[in-house]
Write a structure and sequence with these properties.
Structural class: alpha+beta
Order of helices and strands: EEHEEHHEE
Number of domains: 1
Number of strands: 6
CATH class: Alpha Beta
Distance between the termini: 20 Å
Helix content: 25-40%
CATH architecture: 2-Layer Sandwich
Largest sheet: 4 strands, antiparallel
Radius of gyration: 17 Å
CATH topology: Alpha-Beta Plaits
């Protein structure tokens, strides 16, 4: 196991509740939206995920978008210069058929499993 660094990267997490009636269209749009987000300076990686357990409320789908951002400053740049446009696009397309809650996680240390080239032979 390798400690990459004591870092200053940020995880920007967006938790979505989507009306099941729009799920297919929303997920198609969301994938395009994530690609747009990754074109913004400082955005490094993204994951779209859903809880393993089925919720009791069968009228909504829960989805989390997690973005790795290079620094808090780059996330601030996103908030100052891009977030309004990016958020308005989803609202314009889907209105009140979804909700979003956001949180920011500050990474303390990153770890990465090392793979030896010899072991790939």
């Amino acid at each position: 196991m390798e400690i990459l660094n004591d870092c200053h990267s940020v995880i920007y997490e967006v938790n979505l509740k989507i009306n099941l009636q729009i799920e297919e269209d929303f997920l198609k749009w969301l994938k395009e939206h994530v690609v747009e987000m990754l074109n913004i300076e400082g955005f490094l990686e993204a994951t779209i995920s859903t809880p393993e357990l089925i919720e009791e409320n069968n009228s909504v789908k829960l989805i989390t978008c997690s973005y790795k951002v290079s620094s808090r400053e780059m996330l601030k740049n996103y908030f100052d210069n891009h977030s309004q446009k990016m958020r308005e696009d989803g609202i314009k397309r889907f209105g009140s058929q979804f909700t979003a809650e956001r949180r920011i996680l500050l990474a303390l240390t990153e770890f990465k499993k090392s793979i030896k080239i010899d072991s790939l032979k």
